[in-house]
Amino acid sequence: MPRRKGAPEVNAGSMADIAFLLLIFFLVTTTIETDAGLDRMLPPIDPPEDVEVVIKQKNIFTVNINKNGQLLVEDNLMQLRDLRKAAVAFLENNGDGSCNYCKGRKDATSSDNPEKAIISLKNDRETKYATYITVQNELVGAYNELRNREAQRLYGRDFTEMEAEYLNPETPSNVRDDLKDKVKRVQDMFPQKLSEAETTSN
């Protein structure tokens, strides 16, 4: 009687090699998107000992958010809808008259010029995240409003549109090179100095 043949065996010796090659393939070809994050200026842990930095109180626009979502702007209660307008007025106040493109009131008790103007944002630990982000958007919107105005005057288009095109990796290099100086010029006219103070737990 002939011997029955067993089930054919599958040679799995090269499966590990194939899996390894597939892993390498996906690692090499996959692109990982990175978040840009929030562009904010945090207070230093310790002030430098050898450098004495003097910032006049009138050049700081203080915005406090309490745990109930209420805004205390320059020690006065303010509605969210009025925040952007107040920030714009502060940024382009031009108290020392050195800014020739500013249209502010030149109030001697407010900021000297856009270069020295700082917006300080402080929130309570129990502040809702949505409120915090909404306030940040209004403050950034104040900078963008002024930058858009100057970009329209100088280049006939909004700054936000120019910046988005400049930061887009798909934009041709010759276009990006042309936009680089324009974007930087407008940014320097109204530098974004938005400082986030340490949170409190009142």
Description:
The chain has 202 residues and is an alpha/beta fold. It has a domain at 57-196. It is 38% helix and 10% strand. The protein has five helices and five strands. It has a five-stranded mixed β-sheet, covered by helices on one side. Strand 2 (71-73) and strand 3 form a beta hairpin. Helix 4 crosses helix 5 (173-189). The longest helix has 27 residues, at 129-155. The radius of gyration is 27 Å and the shape is elongated. The mean pLDDT is 84.
Tally of separate helices: 5
Shape: elongated
Structural class: alpha/beta
Give the spatial strand order of the biggest sheet: 3-2-1-4-5
The helix fraction, in percent, is 25-40%
Largest sheet: 5 strands, mixed
| Alpha carbon gyration radius | 27 Å
- The ordered H/E elements are HEEEHEHHHE
The mean pLDDT is 84
User: What is the strand tally?
Assistant: 5
What amount of the residues lies in strands?
Answer: 5-15%
Low-confidence stretches: none
Distance between the termini: 93 Å
